[in-house]
Amino acid sequence: MSKNLFFRACTVFSSGFGAASLALWSTRMSFSGIDPQIAFASTGSIIAGLAALAGAGCAHAYFAGGDEKTLHFEKALRTDVVTGLLSRTGLELALKELVDKSDKSKSLDHYYVISMDFDELKLINNVYGTETGNAVLKILANRLSSLVGDAGPLARTNGSEYVVALKVGHDKLELQAAVEALLSALSKPVRIGTISYPVYANGGIAELNTGSGTSFEKVLRHANLARTNAKQSGRGSYTIYHPEMSHQASYNQWLESELSYALQREEFRLVYQPQYDLNSGALKGYEALLRWTHHEKGAISPADFISVAENCGLIQEIGTWVLRRACLDAVQLQPDLRMAVNVSTVQLEHPKFIETLNAILAETGLPASRLELEITENILIKDHMRMRRLFKKLNQMEVAIAIDDFGTGYSNLTNLSELCFDKIKIDKSFIDRLDQSKERNLMIATIVNLGHSLGARVIAEGIENEAQAILLKAAGCNLVQGYHFGKPLPFEEVLALEERTFDTQQAA
User: Fold this and answer.
1) Residues 6+ away with beta carbon under 8 Å from 292
2) What is the C-alpha to C-alpha distance for residues 129 and 193, in angstroms, rounded to an integer?
3) How many angstroms separate the CA atoms of 23 and 406, rounded?
4) In the 8-state DSSP scheme, what is residue 86?
5) What are the phi and psi torsion angles at 102 (to 5°)?
6) Spatial separation of the C-alpha atoms in residues 33 and 319, rounded to whole Å
């Protein structure tokens, strides 16, 4: 029994005892004459009754005040302090109420939990302060509130995460329209004062089971997992939870635990794919590609583990190892060859990236002009001003920059023209569609012309046949790499290729 219940029981007992005492006194006065003993007993009864009633009154006042405090505290728990929306606790209570009130007979009605968030909050807080970040959260909360209305409970559950529960009929198009409207409201820029803050949202959806045994934590976990998967498809996307996602999450968790030991076990290695001048056929350099051979599971694809390394923070250690190993190997190659190394967005955002890069170049003795960093196009719009400063520093160091996966991101000509880079790399997805139609070929020619107009050379990756090479040459592409020209090789085979190339040149 809690203390409150115990003291409430005492209050009830005191009230009853006081009333009984006064009733006893009244009875005695009605049926007895006034003699000293009875008067004394009656006086005692009156005093005891009044004291008990006074105690009960004080206790009632105390508990009344306690109830008000309790209600205030419970309301605070249910409400998000920053936005005024429901908190995580408030959402859980609202969903329980929703499930309890749902009409189980209407099987066509479904309840869905939609989890949404945007990645820019941390950047806004770091650059402009938490006060500005909170202002952005409030504006976005108001947008969602005006859109959702009374359709379902709306909450801010954590950081930049908003969650809403909606009832939807059997038509899934209704759900689709609702989610797209919510993401559209979240993804519009937020203007505060004279500054406009870009916001890009993703969403995940999980069905809320209205039957017995419904777990709020499980439903929310599924919705968040779906949202995480949606981010892989780009900004503004959303997915509906599928049990396979839980298997993927378990696999990712295993990858994360094994990645921390992969460097210690020396399970990582680099392979190098040659890059050639498309006109002269001359070897111009190599791209370093990371491979992981697990001691039990064998080869694990970079597509599986790179994103996990980025999310858990291990990419800094792994990326530094890749840079150092690639530079050490590049020193042993011909002095006119460049070494291209992929650099993660997370690495670039680290405040000591330039310092680390300088240290590696000094340690390995590789001239900065022989190093090329491949940077994905998507990062150009995350923090354009910061990227401008970073590109400027790299140019001052004479480190070359290539925009990787060009054509798959969201950068615009204005952003590109303000940056100093040496090369753009056409994504393999464009190469795979070459010769399918005149429009596809024209698109490649447009990308090549765009690169040249920006003063950059153009390289195409993933060339697998002669027909693709001919079309790229006709389009004006400068450099190529792919299995048609050479597969990725261990460094020992690269050295052997270098020796054969040198011997051929000497003989000529």
Assistant:
1) 262, 267, 268, 299, 300, 302, 305
2) 14
3) 93
4) B
5) -65, 145
6) 103
Joined tokens for residue 267: 């399970």
pLDDT tens per residue, the chain (508 residues)?
A: 454 555 455 544 555 554 455 455 555 555 455 555 555 455 555 555 555 555 555 555 555 555 555 655 566 778 999 999 999 999 999 988 887 777 655 556 688 999 999 888 888 888 888 999 999 999 999 999 999 998 899 999 988 999 999 988 777 788 889 999 999 999 888 888 888 888 889 999 999 887 656 688 889 999 999 998 888 777 788 999 988 888 888 888 899 999 989 989 999 999 999 999 999 999 999 999 999 999 988 999 998 899 899 988 899 999 999 999 999 999 999 999 999 999 998 898 898 999 999 999 999 999 999 999 999 877 776 667 788 889 999 999 999 999 988 866 555 666 777 788 999 998 888 888 887 778 778 888 988 998 899 899 999 999 999 999 999 999 999 999 999 999 999 999 999 877 766 555 555 5
Beta-carbon contacts of 335 under 8 Å, excluding residues fewer than 6 positions away, are: 370
State the DSSP code for 409: S
Please name which of 201, 120, 130, 132 lies closest in space to residue 164, comparing C-alpha atoms: 201
111: enclosing H helix or E strand: strand 110-118
Question: Is 268:299 a contact under the CB 8 Å cutoff?
Answer: no
Rounded to an integer, what distance in angstroms lies between the CA atom of residue 478 and that of residue 22?
A: 106
Residue 264 carries which DSSP code? Answer: T
DSSP 127-159: HH-HHHHHHHHHHHHHHHHHHHTTSS-EEEEET
- The answer to whether 454 and 423 have CB atoms below 8 angstroms apart is no
Write out the DSSP string of 351-382: TTHHHHHHHHHHHH---GGGEEEEEEGGGGGT
